[in-house]
Design a protein that fits this description.
The protein has 14 helices and 22 strands. Helix content is 33%, strand content 23%. The strands form 6 sheets. It has a 7-stranded antiparallel beta sheet, covered by helices on one side. The chain has helices at 15-26, 31-45, 115-126, 131-144, 150-163, 168-172, 189-200, 209-221, 227-232, 259-265, 274-285, 373-388, 393-398, 417-425, and strands at 9-12, 55-62, 67-73, 90-96, 99-105, 146-147, 184-185, 236-238, 241-245, 248-252, 294-300, 306-312, 320-321, 326-327, 355-359, 362-370, 402-405, 408-411, 429-432, 442-447, 450-453, 460-463. The radius of gyration is 21 Å and the shape is globular. The chain has 465 residues and is an alpha+beta fold.
Length: 465
């Protein structure tokens, strides 16, 4: 088996998140321990991207058994136990890219959260350190506040209408000034939230103290989540989908994620010109846009076990549990996720695609991405760069990306002019962005030859040794 002793580490969307994961790895924690602790910190440090009342998906690679398994803890549809009086969704417009994009937020858009029970399930199955220890980094981060990186400040500016709609105004715009890069994000209520998670376990969100406060807010504002919804929620282990790619085997999520189908449409790009490579990517990725806000982290431990966790609140509903600073999700307002039969208790759909790649010697890399439909675009381009073209993880994450949406190809700066010319010659209109932007996803990778974290999310990668 490949030796991971010095490549063990974490890549995440905020320095605080990455440091928490490395701290747990250094204490001998498994990749599941580190991922759970780091995800909780992301729910303090990355609250413009995610939160503890959201949902997510994870993948676990077990080095000893040579098996991958997925964990589904995405949000479920509320409404079990009878319908309560409902408020109407609040329609807002967010300036996403060149045009304002309509969204629905408010408490009527809140689905049943899955992150607490998902992290508990991950820890119960594959963790080794005490649960309370895994909660400590989040408690500490909430106590002292966390610095707002530039990419997060940019996202906050875009999301200001929802983030400051209610209780969030005092968090994200104290003194009537929106937080800027370098400011401290203070959410004192999250100290109590994570103390309750440490003391009561994940059950606090489903039948304990936090659940009572959540249901009281639902009653007050006319939300849909009921006590029966919370009591019925469970995380689900599932098998991954797989495909061969570049002499490796890729294990990931199926369904709306579409990573396997996209990789299977790619030819080898090692010998292609930049223009031809771009055309191959555009044709393989042709898709529709989904505009959720997510975060992702990737962990590998010294034994070669890997864990990738992707979580999201949607945009966030704009409602915060009083005294706990817990922002509720807005998944029922994400129109692209409202597919199929939305029966109470059923899982909602997701684009999330936590991924591990292996070969005959064991783990090659673990990776995941944030960013709605751009999640697939980002992840596929990074995987192709590392596995097919042989570039380093950080270089693959850093280089400019393309994302097709209908007949428009969005392109970050850094491509040669012949790339734009070739795309336009094939009937597409190219929208040239002025800078690397969180629109193009947030990818994290840990591989045998290093790690990569996304500058588009002000990410950081750290390794042991």
């Amino acid at each position: 088996m490949r030796c991971w002793e010095y490549a063990a580490g974490i890549a995440a969307g905020h320095p605080e998140t990455a440091r928490a994961g490395l701290e747990i790895l250094a204490e001998g924690g498994t990749a599941a321990d580190a991922a759970a602790a780091a995800t909780m910190v992301s729910c303090v440090a990355e609250t413009v991207m995610t939160g503890i009342a959201g949902g997510g998906h994870a993948i676990w690679w077990d080095a000893r058994s040579g098996r991958a398994e997925l964990l589904d803890f995405f949000v479920s549809v509320p409404g079990l136990g009878g319908r309560r009086p409902q408020s109407a969704p609040i329609e807002i417009a967010i300036p996403f890219g060149e045009e304002p994009v309509p969204y629905s937020v408010g408490i009527a858009t809140c689905a049943v959260p899955g992150v607490p029970v998902g992290l508990d399930a991950l820890w119960n199955r594959h963790g080794s350190l005490p649960w309370a220890r895994l909660c400590e980094p989040a408690i500490s981060a909430a106590m002292r506040g966390v610095e707002v990186p530039s990419a997060h400040a940019s996202c906050l500016e875009m999301l200001e209408p929802v983030m400051t709609m209610r209780e969030g105004a005092g968090i994200y715009a104290p003194g009537d000034r929106l937080l800027r890069p370098g400011d401290l994000l203070r959410q004192p209520g999250l100290v109590r939230t994570f103390e309750l998670l440490a003391d009561e376990g994940a059950a606090t969100f489903y039948r304990g103290t936090v659940a009572k406060e959540l249901l009281a807010l639902m009653d007050e504002r006319g939300g849909r989540v009921t006590a029966a919804d919370l009591a019925a929620y469970t995380a689900r282990w599932r098998p991954p989908v797989s495909c061969a790619y570049a002499s490796t085997r890729v294990h990931t999520r199926g369904g709306m994620a579409g990573v396997v189908e996209t990789l299977q449409r790619l030819c080898s790009m090692k010998a292609l010109t930049p223009a031809d490579r771009a055309l191959v990517v555009v044709r393989a990725l042709a898709s529709v846009d989904l505009d959720g806000h997510t975060t992702n982290l990737t962990v590998v431990d010294v034994h070669g076990n890997a864990c990738v966790v992707t979580t999201s609140l949607g945009l966030g509903s704009g409602d915060f549990i009083p005294g706990l600073d817990v922002h509720l999700n807005s998944m029922l307002g994400e129109s692209e996720l409202l597919v199929g039969d939305l029966e109470p208790g059923g899982r909602m759909q997701s684009m999330m695609a936590p991924t591990v790649v292996v070969d005959d010697a064991g783990l090659v890399l673990a990776a995941g991405s944030a960013g709605g439909s751009r999640l697939r675009s980002a992840l596929v381009q990074v995987l192709a760069g590392i596995l097919d073209e042989g570039i380093s993880p950080q270089d693959a994450v850093d280089r400019p990306r393309l994302h097709p949406a209908g007949n428009v190809v969005h392109a970050e700066p850094g491509f040669a002019e012949e790339v734009y010319d070739a795309i336009e010659a094939h009937g597409y209109r190219v929208n040239r962005w002025r800078e690397l932007h969180h629109y193009f996803g947030g990818t994290s990778v840990v591989a045998a030859n290093g790690a990569g974290a996304d500058p588009r999310r002000s990410g950081l990668s750290l390794t042991l040794g």
